[in-house]
Design a protein that fits this description.
Its cofactor is FAD. The chain has 112 residues and is mainly β. It has a single domain, classed as Elongation Factor Tu (Ef-tu), domain 3 (Beta Barrel). The protein has one helix and seven strands. The chain has one helix at residues 67-75, and strands spanning 2-4, 7-14, 28-35, 38-45, 56-61, 81-84, 105-110. β3 (28-35) and β4 form a beta hairpin. The longest helix has 9 residues, at 67-75. It is globular and about 35 Å long.
């Protein structure tokens, strides 16, 4: 979903159609990408409502000279498969989450 010329929201769904791990406001996922043979990851805040578990919306703003943001905005298309971490960071009222598992999730991008 294009929000502005420099901002796009990527809707991530589980490849197998299952529900994604629950999250709380202010949490984020690491998005793993390979660009020109370079493997890297960047954290992106989940911008969708925590009340649903079928997708994560990740709103990406173009950063001048940004390696990953420019790739996501210019080259990622619907149906592309990406790997992300599970939700990370202590959300509001999340309590102590030191023992919460963080698992990798294979996701696909949808563009609504």
């Amino acid at each position: 979903m294009e929000e502005t010329p420099s901002t796009k929201t990527l809707r991530m769904v589980a490849e197998d159609g299952a529900s994604l791990p629950p999250f709380q406001a202010s949490q984020y996922v690491h998005l793993f990408v390979e660009i020109d043979g370079v493997s890297t990851a960047r954290p992106y805040a989940i911008s969708s409502a925590p009340s649903q578990h079928q997708y994560y919306d990740l709103t990406v703003k173009r950063a001048q000279g940004g390696f990953v943001s420019n790739y996501l905005l210019d080259h990622v298309a619907a149906g592309q498969h990406l790997l992300s971490s599970g939700p990370m960071g202590i959300g509001r009222d999340a309590g102590d989450c030191a023992s919460c598992p963080v698992t990798a999730t294979r996701t696909s991008v949808t563009m609504n």
